């Protein structure tokens, strides 16, 4: 509050210094107390810390002529604040999983069992029962899970280890940047200016290069950018309904929208992009829903045509990538799954079949208010090309890597089998339908992003064999209901897994948690120990996705970012050669989050 008053008086140096000190004190308090906090409580406190950081940036962005020391302090606050809860939770879970204490392992089993029960209940929903009783039961189970988590934290974690995690600053992150790379760390903050009651949201971006002074650039009002992103999401939903027959109006309006987003998000940093070999992007808020590679500059060149792009949940992720863990072995691929709803028609595997089947649950736009079971009841369409996909990538993998493959299809491709076989593999590939909450609910009201954080991970998941049958005959205590929720994924042990490929629609979506990324499947797999997750940001056509996955596995580039770039550009070139619309819907859906150094 004192900082805010100093800012209103025009004393910017004092305002920045006071807000910086406030942030330091609250961060120390967070470090001292996180180890006994359930994740929900930690997230709530992290929002308090963000409010303090917001006061700092409100004063900081009022002046464009700060010295290097002030810019470094601002960079420290950005890098230490983003992703801190995720970072701590990751270390906590890895530490607990590696513990040989029997009481700790028993607590873990009870916690996982509770999580499975919660996921199973959410999958089925209240049905014809009393919604209030269902809500009461869910609340009770969530409280039980929080208590178990708090007990696990207090008994199984070492405070000194946690302090090491939080030793995140400009110098430590900058040292991890490879030569020729550029990190764009985006931040959405709320202006704390007195009397400013509307349109408080703002965006800024930290531009970080090896051995260079950090640069912090204002991107302007968040309501303008967020509205563009909401329009962007609506456009891609509309394109999915008619693909590949786009009207001239759709092509023109889409191009204008993409250029507008580029103008707001990329053009302000364009002068720093020259001659870069790798572009690292750490989005914030609704920016997590944008495929930056599909944004064109004024000359029509897409960003992905110019640079390999890798995404990070936060710049601090670079520090975690240094951990040495044994590499898993072999490829595990699930596809051609029998959902028990519609028989798989192998006759559909014809090259000239229209590419209109999308890999998503047929959910309506109720989004996060829709239960997974409701989507199943409306019918899961078969995905014939997923069977071809998993067998072809398996052959490519064996030929290029010389490792064993495990391909699971049909009625054998169940949830429990996935859970048992996934640990210890090098690559996990899931080609199936997905279920994901509607991210537009979060775009509409970002200020409430921290309010409803009660198990958002049950609202994202993958469908496996038997899911339709088990909806009416559910297993006891959760069990194998054919729906693998992100909450369950986060409790798996996937250390040693280098890639997780989620070849499904919108598999990179979920609940936007400002400052912590997206609470969905991609976060869950990373929390379980996977080094990189490849997922999609919108609906993807079945046949086309099969071909793109073959491009990805056939690539032999020096790193994953370059392989992802080549996969997309091969598709883009084919579209242009055939005289078809080069709309990013067809080639820019998949992004890689995590370690780019993996081949």
Description:
Helix 1 packs antiparallel against helix 2, helix 15 runs parallel beside helix 21 (542-554) and helix 21 (542-554) crosses helix 22 (560-577). The termini are far apart. The protein has a 6-stranded mixed sheet with strand order 7-6-8-12-15-16, with helices on both faces. Strands 3-2-1-4-5 form a 5-stranded mixed sheet. Strand 13 (510-513) and strand 14 form a beta hairpin. The chain is α/β, with parallel strands linked by helices. The protein is built from 22 helices and 16 strands. Residues 341-354, 362-368 and 442-453 have low confidence and may be disordered.
Strand order of the largest sheet: 7-6-8-12-15-16
In angstroms, what separates the terminal alpha carbons?
50 Å
**For the report, how would you describe the main beta sheet?**
6 strands, mixed
Which structural class best describes the helix and strand composition? Answer: alpha/beta
Uncertain runs are 341-354, 362-368, 442-453
Beta-strand portion reads 5-15%
The backbone outline, from C-alpha atoms, is globular
Mean pLDDT: 86
Radius of gyration: 23 Å
Percent of residues in helices comes to 40-55%
User: How many helices?
Assistant: 22
């Amino acid at each position: 509050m004192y900082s805010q008053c100093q800012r209103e008086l025009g004393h910017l140096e004092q305002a920045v210094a006071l807000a910086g000190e406030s942030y330091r004190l609250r961060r120390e308090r967070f470090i001292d107390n996180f180890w006994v906090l359930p994740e929900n409580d930690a997230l709530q406190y992290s929002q308090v810390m963000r409010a303090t950081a917001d006061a700092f940036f409100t004063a900081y962005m009022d002046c464009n002529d700060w010295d290097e020391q002030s810019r470094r302090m601002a960079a420290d606050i950005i890098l230490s604040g983003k992703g801190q809860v995720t970072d701590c939770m990751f270390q906590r879970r890895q530490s607990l999983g590696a513990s040989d204490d029997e009481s700790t392992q028993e607590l873990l089993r009870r916690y996982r069992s509770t999580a499975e029960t919660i996921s199973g209940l959410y999958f089925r929903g209240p049905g014809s029962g009393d919604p209030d009783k269902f809500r009461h039961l869910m609340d009770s189970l969530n409280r039980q899970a929080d208590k178990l988590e708090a007990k696990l934290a207090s008994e199984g974690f070492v405070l000194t280890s946690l302090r090491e995690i939080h030793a995140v600053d400009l110098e430590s992150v900058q040292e991890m940047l490879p030569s020729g790379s550029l990190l764009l760390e985006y931040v959405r903050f709320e202006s704390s200016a007195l009397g400013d009651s509307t349109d408080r949201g703002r965006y800024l971006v930290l531009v970080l290069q090896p051995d260079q002074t950090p640069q912090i650039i204002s991107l302007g009002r968040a309501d303008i950018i967020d509205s563009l992103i909401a329009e962007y999401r609506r456009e891609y939903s509309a394109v999915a309904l008619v693909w590949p027959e786009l009207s001239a109006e759709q092509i023109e309006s889409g191009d204008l929208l993409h250029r507008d987003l580029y103008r707001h998000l990329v053009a302000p940093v364009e002068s720093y992009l020259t001659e870069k070999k790798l572009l690292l992007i750490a989005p914030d808020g609704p920016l997590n829903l944008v495929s930056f590679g599909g944004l064109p500059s004024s000359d029509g060149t897409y960003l992905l045509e110019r640079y390999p792009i890798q995404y990070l949940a936060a710049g601090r992720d670079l520090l975690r990538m240094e951990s040495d863990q044994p590499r898993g072995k072999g490829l595990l691929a699930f596809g051609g799954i029998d959902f028990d709803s519609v028989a798989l028609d192998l006759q559909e595997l014809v090259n000239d079949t229209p590419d209109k089947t999308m890999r998503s649950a047929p959910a309506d736009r109720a989004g996060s208010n829709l239960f997974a079971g409701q989507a199943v009841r409306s019918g899961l369409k078969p995905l014939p090309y997923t069977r071809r996909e998993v067998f072809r990538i398996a052959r490519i993998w064996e030929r290029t890597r010389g490792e064993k493959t495990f391909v699971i299809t049909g009625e054998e491709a169940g949830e429990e089998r996935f859970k048992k076989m996934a640990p210890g593999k090098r690559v996990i590939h899931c080609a199936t339908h997905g279920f994901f909450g509607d991210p537009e609910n979060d775009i509409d009201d970002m200020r409430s992003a921290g309010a409803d954080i009660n198990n958002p991970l049950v609202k994202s998941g993958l469908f496996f064999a038997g899911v339709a049958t088990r909806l009416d005959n559910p297993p006891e205590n959760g069990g194998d209901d054919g729906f693998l929720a992100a909450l369950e994924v986060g409790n798996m042990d996937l250390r040693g897994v280098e890639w997780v490929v989620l070849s499904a629609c919108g598999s990179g979506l979920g609940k936007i948690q400002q400052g912590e990324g997206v609470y969905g499947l991609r976060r869950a797999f990373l929390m379980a120990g996977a080094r990189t997750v490849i997922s999609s940001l919108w609906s993807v056509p079945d046949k086309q996705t099969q071909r793109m996955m073959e491009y990805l596995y056939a690539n032999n580039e020096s790193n994953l970012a370059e392989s992802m770039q080549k996969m997309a550009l091969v598709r883009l070139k084919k579209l242009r050669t055939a005289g078809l619309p080069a709309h990013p819907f067809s080639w820019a859906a998949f992004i890689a989050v995590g370690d780019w150094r993996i081949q």
